[in-house]
Design a protein that fits this description.
Elements lengths: L2 H13 L5 H13 L6 H48 L11 E3 L2 E3 L2 H16 L5 H10 L1
Antiparallel strand pairs: 1-2
Helix pairs in contact: 1-2
Length: 140
């Protein structure tokens, strides 16, 4: 049996998915080394699969690297938010509401809430359109 006959039989077995990985490598080497037109289709398929394997192997490393970087960035973000929340805890003295109305500063919660409720009541009564009320608010 000549080499060509041997590899023709091996090629038929390859198309029927009956070859081992070693036989496929041997067949790929032979197909790459011959100019026989009978092996053109096989050479094209094996070349395509070879390039695909190389690209997939490289992409897997990049995906793992990006996954690691994303996980590290997530951990850094969680730690940063936790630290800012711990450092930014407010004391009762920090929870002061201040209102400036008509040039007067007020820090009394009751006065501020009464002013807010009054403004909301005026706004939602429907006596004047919202555009007029907003214009009046921002002209001062």
């Amino acid at each position: 049996m000549t080499d060509k006959e041997k590899y023709t039989v091996l090629a038929r077995r390859y198309w029927e998915a009956e070859t081992t990985p070693e036989e496929e490598r041997d067949l790929a080497r032979y197909a790459a080394s011959t100019d026989d037109p009978e092996f053109d289709e096989l050479r094209g398929v094996l070349g395509y699969l070879s390039v695909g394997r190389r690209n997939r192997a490289g992409r897997g490393r990049r995906i793992r690297m990006y996954s690691f970087a994303a996980a590290a960035a997530g951990i850094v973000a969680v730690v940063a938010v936790s630290l800012s929340l711990l450092a930014g805890r407010s004391t009762p003295a920090d929870d002061i509401c201040v209102s400036y109305a008509y040039g007067v500063r007020t820090a009394e919660s009751e006065v501020i809430m009464a002013s807010v409720e009054s403004s909301l009541a005026d706004f939602f009564t429907g006596d004047t359109p919202a555009e007029i009320q907003l214009t009046e608010m921002f002209q001062r």
